[in-house]
Amino acid sequence: MSDAPYYIGLMTGTSLDGIDAALVDFTTVTPRLVAAQGRPLPQSLRSRLQRLQASSDDELHLAALAGNELADCYAEAVLALLLRAGVDPAHVAAIGNHGQTVRHRPEAGYTVQLGNHARLAELTGISVVGDFRSRDVAAGGQGAPLVPAFHQALFADPARHRVVVNIGGIANLTDLPTRADATGFDTGPGNVLLDAWVELHQGQRYDSNGQWAATGQVLDDLLDVLLAESYFLLPAPKSTGRDLFHLRWLQGRLSGRHDAPQDVQATLVALTVRTIADAILLQAPGVDEVFVCGGGAHNALLMQGLATALPGIAVSTTAQLGVDPDWVEAYAFAWLAQRCVTRQTGNLPQVTGAKGARVLGAIWPA
Length: 366
Known about the structure:
- The protein has helices at 43-51, 59-85, 117-124, 134-138, 147-155, 192-202, 220-227, 247-254, 261-283, 300-309, 328-341, 349-352, and strands spanning 6-11, 18-25, 32-40, 92-97, 100-105, 110-114, 128-130, 162-167, 170-176, 183-189, 289-293, 314-317, 362-364.
- It is α/β, with parallel strands linked by helices.
- The mean pLDDT is 96.
């Protein structure tokens, strides 16, 4: 492997909204985010990936084709990022590519992320590290969340008890106490239900700033129905995804009801807020401050709800820690790629439930 100073992290999350790419310099004591940018997924590819969330005819063939197209989009994102940063591909040691999750079934012993890493290496001329989750699953873990190890490395403070909450399609938290090991888990839906519902009723990919939800009112009886989902009562370690939380899950719980769509949206915001806040209060007693990253950090209604649900606790975004909330996950997968290349472990067994710390990922050399 090259001893080049840079790594690139790529992330396409549960929300299917686009590709995040981050260029990270590892010559400093704390890895430094040099440049980052987002790139939307083509609508046709996004639709195909949505269909692959459920079983269908000839899905292996369709998944392979989608993986090829994703690799093409990843390559475009990488080369555009390098051009913007003025960095030659020869100076990049590796790309850490999370890939697009289409199945996450750790209880059945597998997790599937599409992305054709070999094709990406061929298109960019840069080595690729991918398939980060499978080794943790093989070791008996959930394979998720993987970002807590990165959160611990970058954001832990010996004098302040912090919690970092990533609100993507699925929300997860990392508890960073001052005198104990970091812990974390998926709390439940972040934006995945919000995005699906607003797209169904408003034709938009997401509810910008929570503006549509703000026109509705929270339906307490519906919120109780949603909160009855058994996942919320499971002890950690635990992880989830679109395999559980999807539009059909929501529609099943709306059966026989005739609620105004904006009221449902407001209730879904309340669901995300409530499940995150309950998890923080239960799992991180005494927390001093909460930092939010991911797309949910831009939802003013959601952020206001968290601040209200966590009285006496400072709630802000990771921008306060010097990292734009949009790029934390891509940053994390550059870090995980560097850990793999240098043969360092990347998981936290107390988070995922794996039998021990493991080097995560497989390498496709340039």
